[in-house]
Structures are given as structure tokens and as C-alpha cells.
Design goal:
CATH class of the largest domain: Alpha Beta
Strand content: 15-25%
Shape: globular
Bound molecules: alpha-D-glucopyranose
CATH architecture of the largest domain: 3-Layer(aba) Sandwich
Strand order of the largest sheet: 1-11-10-9-12-13
Number of strands: 13
Order of helices and strands: HHEEEEHHEEEHEHEEEHHHHHHEHHEH
Radius of gyration: 23 Å
Structural class: alpha/beta
Low-confidence stretches: none
Largest sheet: 6 strands, mixed
Oligomer: single chain
Length: about 450
Amino acid sequence: MTEEDTKDKGSQVNRSVVEDICKPFIVGDEVYRQIRDVFLNEIKKGLCKYTHESASVKCLLTFVEKLPNGCERGKFLALDVGGTNFRILLLNLDGGENLKIETASYELTESLMTGPGRDLFDFLAECLSTFIHKHDLQKEELNLGFTFAFPLKQTELNKGVLVTWTKAFSCSGVVNHDVVDLFKEAINRRDDIHINNIVILNDTTGTLISCAWDYRETKIALIIGTGTNTCYLEKTKYIELFNGGVNASPTMIINCESGNFGSDGSLDFVRTPIDLILDNNSVNAGQQIYEKMISGMYLGEIVRLILLECINAGAMLNGVHSEEISTPMSLDIKHMSEIEAGEPGNDSATRQIFEIMGYKRPSDEDCEHLRYICNVVSTRSANMAAATLATLVNRVGDPFVVIGVDGTVYRMYPNYPERLRKKLKELARPEYQFCLKVTEDGSGRGAALLAATVFSKKRSP
Ligand code: GLC
């Protein structure tokens, strides 16, 4: 054998080792169909009053029974909290098609996201005060939609008790408290602004409402960004925990909190050993299992753990561990995006990421393998997102439904929407057509629109 032949042989062996390590992440349609069907069972458990308490997919009531009809008028504020940036919006509606939005964005430091809740709410109130003064709104009758992108137990539109923190938040003194109350207390402590009414909602709910303003057929929303979640319009007769009496609307938005799908073991058939390691190392082990398999906060970590296995097996990077690759959460979804955005055969982005990860001279083969790993992990994410959406498309059962989507993974990750759409088409019943619409700023805009739906000034006769 020539030296060249030996090298080729070595490459083939490395490739097959990498493929073997990735194999558990590549599953057939029968598995996605199973995820779709198991998710339906979980939804039913969440909606049923006897199983709701123990259900992992909580199906939380939102009390949003009415979607905007386009005739809303006035100025409405929104506060959108759920990630490292939080936003304040001012929406001006003229009762017709015109909608004007002013936005301001503020950064939440790690200490605000993990320190005492009081500091977080004081900061939100301070930014709101700055915003109101800047836009000279002190004398207006202000109504506000408050998007809080975490699981909330609601008993009314203006009450939301935080069930648990998810994603990177862990402020003390907030879980089991009504966040509307906590926010009002912070506003009162300042004593320089006044808000008439506040309604509270999840970011998926906001996305659905916002998309419904543009497309009347919207009945489902998906967020796939740092975290993931879905919501949909359910018939109130199936929402056993809701007792709306004779005046109840026929439908209400249900916040599935689908990120927690699988925390009762129902996704064990598709979890890989790497998914188990990631969960064990996380701050909320055992929770948000589906979110940990598909959302932006965790995909980079899955790739890092696969890479480590490939290195340990001697199939990549000459078996050498860099300090960076050994550091949990050091690989970001942004890096994966850049790698997959590069043209095949052009490794410059991949090389840059390797450099960030502490490798100066990766081989062409290492680059090819890393790209392959990213593709496997992001494709599983898109397919799993499609599986639960298929459940909802089938559940809604309309001949045509619009799905509002927001979140950086969907908006920024190369080819993610195409992959998701393709799998959804395969998994939803063929008689139910659907269309996915990006609803940028959906969560904030939806919050202001909800406030508008509830508090809109009546047209003068
Ligand atoms: C997490 C939150 C959920 C939110 C989602 C997307 O899963 O628990 O409420 O909708 O992230 O931001």
C-alpha cells in the first residue's frame, strides 16, 4: 500500500467512526411519527383536569379568547422579557390597517437574570419610566401588554404566577409569585409613572396574536430560539380546567409549554446518551427535555459533546483536547450557523470556529466532519420541531392554517425553515394545509395587540 492509500484508509475509518457516533441522532420517519403521536397524548394529559397536575406538557390557560380584529385604536405599550435583551414597544393603531411601532431594546446583565427578582423588576420599571418620558407619554392613559417568556399559571388575563424559571434565568423570589404584582410593586416604588391596566402573556401567545393580526387563519405559533415552545387555539369545551360559563368564547389560546415535553420519560425512546449527559450537567436536570434536544441554547453544547467523543475515539483533531473544547457551553449556535452557512468546499468559516475552539490547524477532514455533525444536530432539531407542530396542525384540523413563527434559530439558521417545512408536510395529515409565517418582533407586538384587543377605545359614533 502506498502512503496515499494508507491515508485514504485512515480517512475512511475516521469518517465511519464520526458517522457511528452521530447515528443515534439520525432517526427514521417512524420515530418522528411516534414523537408526533406521543405529543398528542401529552397534550391531552395537560388539558385533562385529573392528569394536568402531573402532566409534563402543561397546556397552560392563557385567557386569550379573542384575537385582534383590525379595528383596534389607540396607543399601547408592551414589555417583552425572556432573553438577554428585553424590549419595550409603543404601538399606535388607527383603527385601520396602519400600525406604527416604536421600539427600545435594553440588555439584561447576568446578575439581573440570576440575582434577586426585586432587582430585575426594578430595572424593568426604570427602563419603562425612561421610555415613557422619552416619548412624552406621562399624561396618556396607558395600557400595557407584558410578555413574560416563561411558564405562567394564569387565572385571568392580568394574573400570571411563575411556575418555574427556564432558560438562563433563576432570580430568587419570583417562582410562585404573580409577576404582574411584582412589576406593579416595582412601578409603585418609583412613583413617577402610572399604568392603567396590565395584561400578561407568554411569548408564543404574543406571536400567535401578532401573526393573527396579519393573517386571520393563524391558529398556531412556534418559538424556536434560545428556548422553544408552541401554542394553539383549542376549543374551550376540551379545556377541562376552564370554567367560562355560558359566556365563554368557543376557543382559547393554550400555551403548551412544549419545551418540557419528555420530562416524564415520554421521549426516552429518542434520547441519545449525549442528550442524557447534557441534561445531567444542566442546572435544571430532568426538566425541559425536548427544549434541550432542539433549542438554540443547547444545540452548540450537543455538537461540543459529539466532537469530544470523536476526539476521544481518535477520529478527529489527532485526539487532542483543547482547553476550550473541554469547557461546557463553549460552542455557540452562532458558530454552528456560520459553519453551515459556508459553501461546501469552502472551509474558512469552519476553520475560524476551530480557531476559537483552540485548534489552529484542523485538517480538511476535521472541517468536513464538524460540518457534518452540525448538520445532523440541526436537522434533528428541525425534524423534532416539525413533529410537535404536526400534532397541532392535526389537532386544529382546519383545511388551511397559518403558523406564526419567531426565534433566532428559525430566522437565522441556514436552511432551517426549509427542513422544518418539509418534515411537517410529511407528518401532518395531507388534508390539512399549512403555511409558516415568520412573525418578527411577534412576542412584543402581540403583547401590545392583546392590550389593544382588551382595552381599545370604541370608535366614536
Ligand atoms: C422556554 C419557556 C417558554 C417560552 C420558550 C420560548 O421554554 O419556558 O415559556 O415560551 O422558552 O421563549
